Structure formats: C-alpha cells, structure tokens
Amino acid sequence: ESKAAGRGRVTVFDEEMLSDKRYRRLVERELRAAVYLGELELHYQPIVNPDGSAYALEGLIRWRHPVRGLISPAEFIPIAERSTLIDMLGEWVFKRACADVGHFPGRRISINVSGEQLKRDEIVTMCDRVLRETGRSATQFIIEITETVATAATPETLRRLEALRGLGFHIALDDFGTGHCGFNYLKTLPIDSIKIDRSYIRSLAHDQVAQIFVSALAQIARIQDVTIVAEGVETQEEFVLARAAGCNRFQGYFFSRPAPRDKVAPLRSIDAEPLAQSA
Ligand code: C2E
Ligand code: MG
Ligand code: MG
Ligand code: MG
C-alpha cells in the first residue's frame, strides 16, 4: 500500500509502475487517447476578494478514467511532462477555459502552465492562435507558473513570459514559499500576483515566523504592485489571519472546493454581506 493511499487518496500510478518504461508508454498512450475520448475535465475553484466576491476561477484538470475513476493531476501531469504530451494537454486546458469563461461574467480564468511548456515557443504561438480561434481576449485569463519554474528560468523562458504578458495575460507565481525564490526575484520577474503556498496559511495560527513571512511578502508586494493570494484557506480563522497579514485574495475549501463548471456555486457579488470581520 502506498503512502498516498494511507492519507485517504488512491494512487493510481505508483512509482514502481512509472519506473517501468513500457508501462509509462501505455499510460502516455491512454492519456493521449483521453483527449479525443473526452475523458478530461476542467474543474473550477473561485479565487475571492476580501469581501468574498469572486475575482477569478482557477481551472484544475482531472482525468475521468473509465476504469480507474477520477484521477488527480498530481498523478498524470508528471507523466505528460516527460514528453510533448504536456503541450497537447495544455492546449486542451486553454481551449476548455476559452469555451467556459463566458459562463463566469466579469471573472478571469486562471490556468496552470507547466514549466515544460515554457521551454518551447509553442506556448506563445498556441495561446495566440487559440485566442484568435475563440475570439477571447488574453485579459480574461491568468497563467500560473510555479515558483520552481521562475527560479530556474532561462532568458528564453523569461522572454516567453514577457510575450504572454504582452498579449494581455496576467502571470501568477504559484506555490510561493516551497521553492527557492528570494525576495530579490520578485523585482525582476514579470508577474502580477503571488500565490502563497497553503503550508504557510496552515501555519499562520500557531507559527509567528509564518505570520512575519506572509506580512513581509505582502509589504514587498504592495511596493512592487503585485497581488498576494492565500492558497488553501480551509477555515474562517485562516481567512481572517491571512487577511490581517495583508493578503489581497483568497482561495480554498473554506470558500469552495473545485467543481465542474455547471456545479460551481453561485458566485458572491461585491455587495454581499461580509464573510468575516477583520481581525
Ligand atoms: P495548484 O495549482 O497549486 O492548485 C491548488 C491545489 O490545491 C489543487 O489540487 C486544489 O484542488 C487544491 N486545493 C484548493 N483549495 C484547497 C484547500 O483548501 N485545502 C487543500 N488541502 N487543498 C486545496 P489539484 O486540483 O489536485 O491540483 C494539483 C496540482 O496539479 C495543481 O496545484 C497544479 O500544480 C497541477 N495542475 C492542476 N491542473 C493543471 C493543469 O491544467 N495543467 C498543469 N500543468 N498542471 C495542473
Ligand atoms: Mg495553480
Ligand atoms: Mg498552488
Ligand atoms: Mg500546487
């Protein structure tokens, strides 16, 4: 039994399977077919303002496998990243987001882009082409890249990020605090927002270092004109503490779990009752 299964999650593809090259090929073939068979789904989770109104929705991919059930992206994205299959999935995600963005008037959709995709110019040409094909504007979208990608960024990667930003996309730095991003990076990276990893949000209630880290980041962000998003907010207490520390936006199970497009709960409008008094 795997470690992940012990945490109440079923691991579909374990390490042993993936170290077997033939098995990996098989999963890759199945994943490629999944695109055509319509087995992929993009679920959405709101990113909210301090008053609880929805600012954007993050699109999170899932694979509804006919035999293995609903598979988490943590399981199959790493497999896709081993080849240009990730480009194919990335295009599927962006097309899906373009098709769905009209269902959430006035809200942006945030999509996750793999560091592997940023290694090729295809990311820029694909986004540009899909926007033209669908008649959408890049200003309706946010592209999330992980902190690891940003710190390992080559001049070419940075040029691609600048190009995407030039098209009108907002760029968000995902899972901040888990990698090695020094505060000095924040000056040079072409980003519009920083998403603080949920491990920091979880620590706010009992760890003064986490509070100071988040507050300092929020102060720097204000100077750099960058927005701070608190990820993985699960309780009202975490929400109040993250807001007190200076976070501008919030995302997590406390507000809503990711859900299929048509099951996303009605989004709160700006004039709704406040969710909590500030601390
Ligand atoms: P991420 O981009 O950091 O997304 C946030 C993850 O945290 C999601 O997991 C989300 O369901 C989960 N989450 C949200 N709120 C809470 C909370 O309050 N508590 C807890 N414990 N978790 C929360 P998910 O959907 O399993 O996605 C995992 C990762 O897979 C994502 O992390 C992202 O890195 C990657 N991913 C998801 N969709 C895509 C995609 O379309 N393309 C690429 N390249 N990667 C994707
Ligand atoms: Mg993300
Ligand atoms: Mg994240
Ligand atoms: Mg993550």
TrEMBL record:
Keywords: Membrane, Transmembrane, Transmembrane helix
EAL domain sequence ranges: 24-272
Highest taxon of source: Bacteria
The protein's name: Bifunctional diguanylate cyclase/phosphodiesterase
Source organism of this protein record: Mesorhizobium japonicum R7A
